[in-house]
């Protein structure tokens, strides 16, 4: 189910972040946008699962790790059960392997917490428009990894079966 929003129907966002201060600041920021409605802001995987079933959000904003489980594994399940929900990871780290695992869930966005407030608002607008948004440091890391893999593949001897 793909969600569409109009001026009468704001974009509903569920925030699932471990640290209360981050959760509250992000909720306050997003609530100041007339086109966004924060349906709930919670601090654990268990609370996130419960809130997701009740709130039917358009966007899930979560971390890769939560105090009671993996945000990455949860999002993998969310995307299977609710493919219309847009997911943006908002996390402290840009560790390449974690970022790649998060992107592999089908998430539409990955931002690090050093992003600006405007970056986050713009990311929500972009994913609701069907785009993908990834922090520049993560994008650069993925490109470097892809380029290194391509170089290795090109340098590997190629075996031909001439029979």
Shape: globular
Q: Strand portion, in percent?
A: 15-25%
The biggest beta sheet is recorded as: 6 strands, parallel
Unreliable stretches (pLDDT < 50, length at least 5) are: none
Summarize the model shown.
With 163 residues, the chain is an alpha/beta fold.
Quickly list its features.
single chain, 163 residues, alpha/beta, six-stranded parallel sheet, two-stranded antiparallel sheet, 8 strands, globular
Describe the structure.
- By secondary structure, the chain is α/β, with parallel strands linked by helices.
- It has six helices and eight strands; from the N terminus they run βαβαβββαβαβαβα.
- It has helices at residues 20-31, 45-55, 71-81, 96-103, 117-128, 136-155; strands spanning 11-16, 36-42, 59-62, 65-66, 69-70, 86-91, 109-112, 133-134.
- The chain has a six-stranded parallel sheet with strand order 2-1-3-6-7-8, with helices on both faces. Strands 4-5 form a two-stranded antiparallel sheet.
- Helix 5 links the parallel strand 7 (109-112) and strand 8 (133-134).
- The longest helix is centred in the last third of the chain and has 20 residues, at 136-155.
- The protein is globular, with a radius of gyration of 18 Å.
- The termini are far apart.
- 33% of the residues are buried.
- The model has no long low-confidence stretch (mean pLDDT 86).
């Amino acid at each position: 189910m793909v969600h569409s929003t109009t001026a009468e129907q704001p974009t509903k966002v569920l925030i699932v972040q471990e640290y209360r201060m981050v959760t509250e600041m992000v909720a306050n920021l997003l609530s100041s946008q007339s086109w966004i409605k924060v349906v709930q802001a919670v601090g654990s995987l268990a609370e996130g699962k419960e809130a997701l079933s009740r709130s039917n959000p358009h966007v899930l904003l979560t971390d890769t790790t939560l105090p009671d489980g993996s945000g990455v594994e949860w999002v993998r399940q969310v995307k299977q059960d609710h493919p219309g929900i847009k997911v943006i990871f908002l996390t402290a780290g840009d560790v390449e392997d974690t970022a790649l695992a998060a992107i592999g869930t089908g998430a539409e966005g990955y931002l690090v917490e050093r992003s600006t407030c405007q970056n986050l608002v713009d990311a929500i607008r972009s994913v609701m428009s069907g785009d993908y948004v990834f922090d520049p440091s993560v994008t650069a890391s993925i490109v470097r990894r892809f380029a290194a893999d391509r170089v290795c593949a090109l340098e590997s001897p190629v075996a031909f079966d001439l029979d």
